[in-house]
Amino acid sequence: MTPAETDTLIRQLISGDPAAAAAILARATSSTEPLVLTAAALLAPTTPQLLDRAVAAATDRQDRQLTALAAAHLAGNVDRVSALAREHLLEHPDSVLAAWIAAGAILPADNAHPIRKPLVAGTVPADSPKES
Q: How far apart are alpha carbons 26 and 71 in whole angstroms?
């Protein structure tokens, strides 16, 4: 995959496209791209080998930061996610995967769909306070 194709696939994933999630998981079986492997690790948190492979493939600072951010997210370390996301996004403000991770990325395990569903314009999340 070219970097542009990978970027498009990640953006489709973040927008809630289930086909993108399936494509990332399928590509992760043979990919050596840290971005693909990191996204797949987020989609399949019970497969730690994906994150291990992403860490091993991460050769530059940007990729190493992103894999550390994903690891903190998967470990449930909210404070570390916040700190790592701030640092990463200062250096790489176009990193949509890092922003997605910082925003929560994955719904709780009891939800049948593995990726966050986007809000519809004009709606508010169910757990948001209502204006009086």
A: 21
